[in-house]
Amino acid sequence: MKISIDETLCTGCSICVTELPEVFEMGDDGLAKVIVESPDGDLVEKAKEVGPICPAGAINIED
Ligand code: SF4
Hints:
The protein has helices at about 15-20, 40-50, and strands at about 1-5, 25, 30-35, 60. By secondary structure, the protein is α+β, with helices and mostly antiparallel strands. The chain has one domain (about 1-60): Alpha-Beta Plaits. Strands 1-4 form a two-stranded antiparallel sheet. The protein has a two-stranded antiparallel ribbon with strand order 2-3. The longest helix is centred in the last third of the chain and has 9 residues, at about 40-50. Iron/sulfur cluster binds near residues 11, 32 and 59.
């Protein structure tokens, strides 16, 4: 699994950070950042759930 954020789409709503702070954090620029690009264990399933809830479609998850 590899997680990335398209910063051209992210609106900084912070939903991903609220839902999964183990993987996402807000940057100083007001946009979300991925802090664990290749999570394992329980975080894999959680990331798959959080990706689609991004209202901007900015979270990309590759298997
Ligand atoms: S949920 Fe999407 S739009 Fe909102 S901060 Fe996270 S990546 Fe950005």
